[in-house]
Design brief:
278 residues, alpha/beta, Rossmann fold, 2 domains, 53% helix, binds S-adenosylmethionine, binds calcium ion
Length: 278
Amino acid sequence: RFPIQRKLKLAQVHKQRKAKRKKLFISRVLAMATNTQDQQSQAGRHQEVGHKSLLQSDALYQYILETSVYPREPEPMKELRELTAKHPWNLMTTSADEGQFLNMLLKLINAKNTMEIGVYTGYSLLATALAIPDDGKILAMDVNRENYELGLPVIQKAGVAHKIDFKEGPALPVLDQLVEDEKNHGSFDFIFVDADKDNYLNYHKRLIELVKVGGLIGYDNTLWNGSVVAPPDAPLRKYVRYYRDFVMELNKALAVDPRIEICMLPVGDGITLCRRVK
Ligand code: SAM
Ligand code: CA
């Protein structure tokens, strides 16, 4: 009886081990499939939401928006966001979470004299206008006045349009003019740059003179849809590929610029804050 019992026991152990191995195999296959799905949805997500999320998942981003951004979003900003959502180039707009961030940042640094390069329909402009005091100023520049005028009625209704000096046209000549006059040197508390990425380094050369020591320049989209870490042969949209090298060049230059302290934040499509120290 003993050898038969032992044989049965061995067979049972063998069966259990086999079942365990099978279970392990299935869980590994499932894990691989899930990972692939994750990677695929990640790739799809970036295409779908463009610049809006570099987070782990859409659900997490949605959680931020629904828990702490939308419930606190000022009514005019909501109205402007919804109006902009209907515009064909709405991918360009600043996201609501970044708008909230800018609004708080400006209040924290008590910004009064500010500048914005790249206005579009004015979401970040309105976030700025609502944050600065009643006698605060924003020199706002964009080559396109039409889009600015789309959002302008909302800005006027919010009672903050008097703070804005909008200049239509390329920003660089305006900056050159400002730099020429020494009284503008070190006069800006905050500058938000959200326009043509191939000019960011040209802007930086001038803006560093115009921002005050202790003031901030925010360069937007410095993670450029995540493309800054994409392999050279990655399938990127044409404009993403075109501007990627400029963004990477800017990131390298800012990282070694001794005149500033920097902080690159994964908010929106990445914003690099530069605090002038000399
Ligand atoms: N900050 C805006 C917002 O919150 O909706 C988004 C700005 S959008 C990403 C970029 C803008 O830069 C466009 O409206 C475009 O017309 C403007 N732009 C492009 N090249 C420019 C230039 N050389 N000077 C000034 N604005 C420029
Ligand atoms: Ca932007």
